[in-house]
């Protein structure tokens, strides 16, 4: 096709609602949004022993990867969410028993707003390499394209 415009991957940012504004997760190198259809399988004599699959539900998650940054040079404060803050947020979610609000940017396709649990946060320090992190956010509601925090 002629005239198509390719979307740059660096538009795929993730931000956390801190109660006042969306705060971006800093130094991401990738983000992905996964939608999985969960099915029920059954086999019985009525269908000659063939496996029949029926849709049951949808599961959605967001996976992110990034580089760990040192914020001490700027007084330990960053305008975005660091891996340490993601870990603290995950711990707070266990105490509160609920997820938090996030916004995923998909460039010209717009934003996706959702509530999610930080079901996995990890960092990796390897000699001779920059430190990295990854996280999985399990979406707990139906994502929307409408910001729930817009009056």
Report on the biggest sheet.
7 strands, antiparallel
Number of helices: 1
Q: How are helices and strands ordered from N to C?
A: EEEEHEEE
Give the % helix: under 10%
Q: Pairing-aware structural class of the strands and helices? A: mainly beta
Description:
The structure is a single chain. The chain has 151 residues and is mainly β. It has one domain (9-139): Factor Xa Inhibitor (Irregular). The protein has 1 helix and 7 strands. A 7-stranded antiparallel β-sheet has the order 2-1-5-6-7-4-3.
Explain the layout of strands and helices.
Layout: E1 14-17, E2 22-24, E3 28-42, E4 52-67, H1 83-96, E5 100-105, E6 111-124, E7 132-139
Antiparallel strand pairs: 1-2, 1-5, 3-4, 4-7, 5-6, 6-7
Task: Put the structure in a nutshell.
The chain has a single domain (9-139), classed as Factor Xa Inhibitor (Irregular).
Give descriptors for this structure:
seven-stranded antiparallel β-sheet, mainly beta, 1 helix, Phage tail protein, Factor Xa Inhibitor, 9% helix, 151 residues, 7 strands, 44% strand
């Amino acid at each position: 096709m002629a005239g198509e415009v390719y979307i740059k991957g660096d538009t795929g940012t993730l931000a956390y609602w801190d109660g006042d504004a969306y705060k971006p997760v800093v130094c991401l190198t990738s983000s992905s949004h996964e939608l999985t259809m969960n099915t029920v399988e059954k086999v019985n004599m009525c269908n000659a022993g063939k496996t029949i699959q029926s849709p049951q539900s949808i599961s959605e998650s967001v996976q992110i990867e990034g580089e760990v940054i040192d914020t001490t040079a700027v007084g330990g404060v960053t305008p975005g969410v660091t891996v340490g803050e993601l870990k603290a947020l995950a711990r707070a979610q266990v105490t509160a028993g609920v997820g938090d609000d996030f916004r995923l940017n998909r460039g010209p396709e717009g934003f996706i707003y959702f509530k999610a649990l930080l079901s996995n946060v990890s960092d990796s320090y390897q000699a001779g390499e920059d430190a990295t992190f990854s996280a999985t956010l399990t979406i707990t509601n139906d994502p929307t394209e409408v910001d729930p925090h817009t009056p």
